Amino acid sequence: MALKDVAPEDAANLHRSLRGTPAAANQTIWVLSKMFSLAESWEMVPPGRNPCRHIRHYRATPRERFLTPEEFRRVGHALKAFEARGSMLLSAIAAIRLLMLTGCRSDEILTLQWEDIDRVARVLRLRDSKTGPRMVPLTGTVLKVLDGLEREDGVPWVLRGAKPKTRLACLSGHWRRVRKAAGLDDVRLHDCRHSYASRALALGEGLPVIGRPARPCPGRHTPTWCATPRRRRPQEPAARSISPRPGGRRGRSGWRWAGMACSMPTRRAKGRR
Question: How far apart are CA 167 and CA 80, in angstroms?
Fold first, then answer.
């Protein structure tokens, strides 16, 4: 069917046929509407020919899924098992760890380049973020993950692909294997980001700090927290609480498991600083 032949009834019927999955139905109409908007701007169809303009989207309940401390531990053990067997790309394992330790989006991690890592200021400088350029704190555990990756001459990407001179393009297949090994079939990769934010909230961080951790303010080239090296980075407590550490010792911030687990905060003794 040609674009000029698509009528509003066709779009409405398509939307109705997907009513069993409201979120997918709404997303399909959004994509179709975007296609017609581009077609209008490219003069492929006359103006005002978007058949999706008057379609009312279904009410979709946002899906909320947060990993528990036990689930973080299971993901960590699964990652270490794949690493020990050599049955998964090291870059894919590192990518999942970075996602869980930084709260970044998948695309932000997959497109990360070596020049984006500022070890002096201890930040990741994300240039193509969904919300615009921003900076993410580099904690010690994140640096350990990055230090474990081999840098190849002539390849700007931090996470290399299976083929030479390429970057890792997708994590979906790798994540399906990890979540199956961890027994977490209902957990999406993006849930790791939500869980990171939830963990930061539990540790007392504010929403502005979590949502836009280090995005420069207008007219300011360097955020205040970045300009003061000794000041605590806003995301460090959350990253430390799910950091990979050997063994199962109990430290000042709680229990730590091998791989990528979490901590159970402990009550400090009175008077301890």
Answer: 22
**Side chain identity, residue 58:** Y
How many whole angstroms separate alpha carbon 179 and alpha carbon 79?
10
The partner residues of 160 in beta bridges, in order of sequence, read 167
How confident is the model at residue 48, as a pLDDT?
A: 87
Which secondary-structure segment (H or E) carries 251?
strand 250-251
Burial level of 87, CB count in 10 A (0-12/13-18/19+)?
exposed
Contact present, 260 and 100 (Cβ < 8 Å)? yes
Q: Which residues contact 236 (CB under 8 A, 6 or more apart)?
A: 137, 139
Closest among 84, 79, 81 to 95, alpha carbons compared: 79
Q: What domains does the chain contain, in order, with CATH numbers?
A: 1-62 (no CATH), 72-249 (1.10.443.10)
Write down the pTM of the prediction: 0.62
CA dihedral (64, 101, 99, 60) in degrees, to 10, reads 10
User: What mean pLDDT is predicted for residues 183-201?
Assistant: 74
Whole-number Å distance between alpha carbons of 91 and 160: 6
CB-facing half-sphere around the CA of 50: CA atoms within 13 A:
19
Write out pLDDT tens, residues 1-35. Answer: 788 889 999 999 999 999 988 988 999 999 999 99
How much is the pLDDT for 179? 93
Per-residue pLDDT reduced to its tens digit, 125-154 = 987 666 677 888 888 888 999 999 989 888
CA–CA distance, 243 with 97 (Å, rounded to integer):
9
Q: DSSP state, 161? A: -
Instruction: Give residue for tokens 């970057």.
Output: 167
